[in-house]
Structure formats: C-alpha cells, structure tokens
Specification:
The protein contains nine helices and four strands. It is mostly helical. InterPro entries: AB_hydrolase_fold, Polyketide_trans_af380.
Length: 169
Amino acid sequence: MTFGPAFRSMLPDVRQTLVNVGKQRTAETRGDNRRRDPWIPDSLKEAEAASATDPDLLEAAAFYRESGYRHPNSTNRLLFVSYANLLGFDAFNLVPELLFQPLQVIVGGRRGTTGQYEAGQRLFDLSPADNKDFFVVEGAGHYDMYYKPEYVGPAIDRLTAFYSKYLPT
C-alpha cells in the first residue's frame, strides 16, 4: 500500500489531522501519554457497530484481526503522531531516477479503496525500465492476493517466469 495517498484519501480533513498531530506532539513533550489509535477496527463486530461498510476495510479487519493469519503480538495500534510521516510519504519519489532494473508489477483486478491497483499502475508508468510487465489477477481484491490460492497461484506463476528470465543463475 502506498500509505501517503491512501491515508490522505481516507481522512476527512488532512489539515485538521496535522494540526491535531502537532497538538499531540506538544502534549507528549509536556509529559502526556503517547496516543495510540487503531489502524482498523479490532473486530468485524466493532466495524459493524461503527456502521463501517467499505468492503476493503471489512476485509482488512477480517484478515488482520480475526483470521488465522492474525499475528498474536499485533496490537493494531498506531502512534497518532506517526500520521505526520504517513501523510507525507511518497513511495514513488525516486522511481524515474532509480528503477531501471526489470520490473514485474502484479495487482488484483478488483479495485477497491486501498488504491493498490492504481499504485501498481503508477509504479509501472513511472519506471523507465526497458523490461517491465504489468499483470492483473482478474477477480482478486487486495487482501485476496495475500493468501487465496486461486489468486496467489497465477501471481506466483507470473513471478516464476519473470525471475527465470531476468535473474542470473
């Protein structure tokens, strides 16, 4: 996920968030406790109680908070002051200058609010590499690409062919 654009699009008021981050930094400097907020709802039940309807948010809560893939040490908490860095992050800043090696971009074909399809397309478009490939796994959403064999399999097949062609042995 490209955190900067994703976070900027999710927040109702980026400027106000940054103002609040500044206030929180000041409070913490003066001895207040560090504020930690959830990344996503802690459960699907909590998401339902908050009237969450975004399919990607619900899939994230199901995967990260309730599935067998959930890490037992995950707190699902983000330091609130970290929003300042996340909101300004740009993963593509130096792509045109530095990404000349062969590039394989794989995205799920079901677009959602995570912006992953668009981020993959942007990476592909910005890269000056001569040998690059953009592969769409039709029907897959962002979180499907993590663990569902019917979507991961085609991605692995594509990567295998790509690596066989471009990685020296």
